[in-house]
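Anyone up for a design puzzle?
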């Protein structure tokens, strides 16, 4: 079917499609979009986290980024989880949507929605949006493997297990004036609007109930990385102390060069500041 036929098919089955979504608990699935991902921007307001220890890591994770069409064709709208956050006093941070005690990833210290530029959440767009963030504590005794993965930056995707409460179909077809009005009014606010225009429809999620947040290998919404990795900025005195620890600047430079050579993540290699911070963090800890 061509674009117009697909849209008409969605309209013809609108009530059934909405009913199916409302009856479904949404989890992650394989990513089908190709986002313009970047590293989260520096200089944005980030909550101050406790310092990491040998036994506990503190991070702010992105559970969901709004105004972005995911692989379920959903666009979560600003404030869609506000009510759920207020009502849900038992926030869960688990692994792979596996609701077992052995799959607890950490403890949620705080859950909140935050406005910011798409770039601050890791997406190359000049638009602003809102994201669902969670300050979490990851305990080594809970899972040494997950603790190590988070410490080494290997966890960079998350997914919200949720139920739809208020959801509407938005289409690029005047045949359904209500759905068309919704489509045209929301399209300018969607970060990946080009993908939306290509298919001509999406589901606008006005309200949803969050059941849990999971660390996953690939989320349906790819803008769900680590918002604050708790990297501290060190001053010149800190650098001097590090150099003194190694005896002289030559030893420090040699260690730094060896560190860079062992890096396999090209995105991090190209970000000199991030490499230096990672090096300093590994030495100080």
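Challenge accepted. My sequence:
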């Amino acid at each position: 079917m061509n674009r117009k036929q697909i849209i008409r098919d969605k309209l013809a089955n609108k009530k059934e499609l909405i009913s199916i979504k409302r009856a479904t608990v949404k989890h992650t699935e394989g990513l089908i979009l190709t986002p313009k991902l970047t590293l989260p921007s520096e200089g944005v307001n980030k909550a101050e986290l406790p310092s990491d220890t040998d036994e506990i890591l503190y991070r702010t994770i992105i559970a969901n980024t709004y105004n972005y069409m995911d692989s379920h064709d959903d666009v979560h709208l600003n404030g869609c989880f506000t009510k759920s956050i207020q009502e849900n006093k038992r926030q869960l941070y688990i692994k792979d949507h596996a609701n077992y005690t052995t799959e607890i990833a950490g403890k949620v210290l705080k859950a909140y929605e935050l406005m910011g530029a798409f770039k601050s959440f890791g997406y190359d767009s000049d638009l602003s949006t809102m994201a669902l963030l969670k300050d979490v504590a990851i305990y080594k005794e809970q899972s040494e493997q997950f603790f190590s993965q988070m410490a080494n930056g290997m966890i960079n995707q998350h997914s919200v297990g949720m139920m739809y409460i208020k959801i509407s179909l938005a289409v690029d077809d005047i045949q359904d004036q209500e759905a068309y009005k919704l489509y045209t009014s929301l399209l300018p606010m969607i970060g990946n609007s080009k993908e939306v225009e290509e298919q001509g429809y999406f589901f606008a999620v006005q309200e949803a109930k969050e059941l849990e947040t999971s660390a996953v290998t690939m989320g349906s919404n790819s803008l769900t990385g680590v918002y604050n990795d708790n990297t501290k900025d060190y001053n010149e005195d800190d650098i001097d102390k590090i150099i003194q620890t190694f005896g002289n600047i030559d030893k420090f430079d040699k260690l730094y060069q060896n560190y860079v050579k062992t890096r396999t993540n090209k995105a991090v290699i190209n970000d000199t500041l991030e490499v230096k911070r990672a090096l300093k963090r590994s030495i100080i800890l």
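A detail worth pointing out: DSSP finds ten helices and nine strands in the chain.
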